[in-house]
Specification:
This protein has two helices and ten strands. The chain has 177 residues and is α+β, with helices and mostly antiparallel strands. The chain folds into two domains: 129 residues, Sandwich (Immunoglobulin-like); 34 residues.
Length: 177
């Protein structure tokens, strides 16, 4: 099944045991001959609405030297909206590792559990990364008044307070009967 497609009988069973023993240490959930990992993000922690670029690597096992296909970045089971759309893997390290990137932002604060799924096709089978945590903070870009703004706000409050007090005093000076 893995690299032994034309074997049958006891020889096929032996080949399968050997193949599974060889790849068991590096295969991830859903994959036989590739591993996928999210290797990082450009900003972690990020703020709500702030763009961050996630990077995933796809590494084929020694049986295969060439992979193609795409990587889906997921939050739980929901695909992330990435820019640019379609995360096609590209080669690095002379073909030993492939990378895909996803630029996205988050609308909720707190830890976000993300995974990357290599979708294949061809000789390289799909694989799923371990969870990667992207921490998202409430935006620190809250507008502030600054020195003069605070001074003007206090002045405005004092002015309104004086107007209200003067109207009360005027109303009590001329009682109606």
């Amino acid at each position: 099944m893995i690299a032994f497609r034309n074997l049958s009988g006891p020889l096929a069973a032996l080949a399968m045991v050997c193949a599974l023993t060889t790849v068991a240490g590096s295969a991830t959930a859903g994959g036989i001959n590739t591993t996928t990992a999210i290797t990082g993000s450009t900003v972690n922690p990020s703020d709500i609405g702030q763009n961050t670029t996630l990077t995933a690597t796809v590494t084929p096992l020694t049986f295969y030297a060439s992979c193609s296909g795409t990587v889906a970045f997921l939050k739980a089971t929901t695909p992330l909206v990435c820019s640019p759309a379609g995360q096609t893997i590209s080669t690095s390290n002379g073909g030993a590792t492939y990378t895909a990137t996803c630029t996205t932002s988050f609308s909720a604060s707190g830890p976000q559990s993300l995974t990357a799924r290599y979708l294949g096709p061809g000789a390289c089978y799909p694989s799923l990364s371990a969870a990667f945590t992207q921490n998202v903070n409430v935006s620190a870009n809250v507008p502030t008044l600054g020195g003069w703004g605070l001074f003007l706000l206090i002045g405005l409050m004092l002015g309104v307070g004086l107007i209200v007090m003067s109207r009360r005093n005027r109303a009590s000076a001329f009682p109606t009967t």
